[in-house]
Design brief:
The protein has 141 residues and is of the alpha+beta class. The protein has a domain of 90 residues. It contains four helices and four strands, in the order ααβαβαββ. It is globular and about 50 Å long.
């Protein structure tokens, strides 16, 4: 699994146990969450597909469950998904922001490394548009 992949950034497993990261198994496990997504909206129509533009509202209702909000979803988004160097310590590869939920802080585009099996340092340009955009959120206790 590439180090820049969404699943690897959100649950780094053995990759974060690299001495360069200073993370123990207990620290990694303290940030685990249970996540569920429920799609809403109609399927993309042939007209939308041809135009390359959506006309209907659709998306994914995301829910996460964790024991501690600041150590769960908030931490994962801020310190792992948006950290261009996490998980680090892999032959100088900079994974970049999370390819799915990472939030770009500038307009220079999003670049990730570690996807090319023959050249881990080869960069993949994702563009400036984020794949996931938040339109609101609530905490329920």
């Amino acid at each position: 699994c590439p180090f820049a992949a969404h699943i690897r950034k959100m649950y780094p497993r053995d990759g974060a146990k690299d001495p360069a990261n200073n993370l123990s198994e207990e620290q990694i496990d303290s940030h685990r969450i249970i996540r569920r997504g429920i799609p809403f909206g109609r399927e993309v129509t042939a007209v939308e597909r041809l135009a390359g533009k959506t006309l209907e509202q659709r998306g994914l209702l995301f829910v996460s469950y964790q024991a501690n909000l600041s150590m769960g979803f908030q931490f994962l988004q801020q310190f792992w998904a948006n950290n261009v160097g996490f998980p680090g310590g892999h032959s100088g590869v900079s994974p970049g922001v999370g390819p799915i939920i990472g939030q770009n802080s500038n307009d220079d585009g999003r670049e990730i490394e570690g996807f090319n099996a023959t050249d881990q340092s080869a960069a993949l340009q994702l563009g400036t548009k984020e794949f996931v955009g938040s339109s609101g959120g609530e905490y329920f206790f």
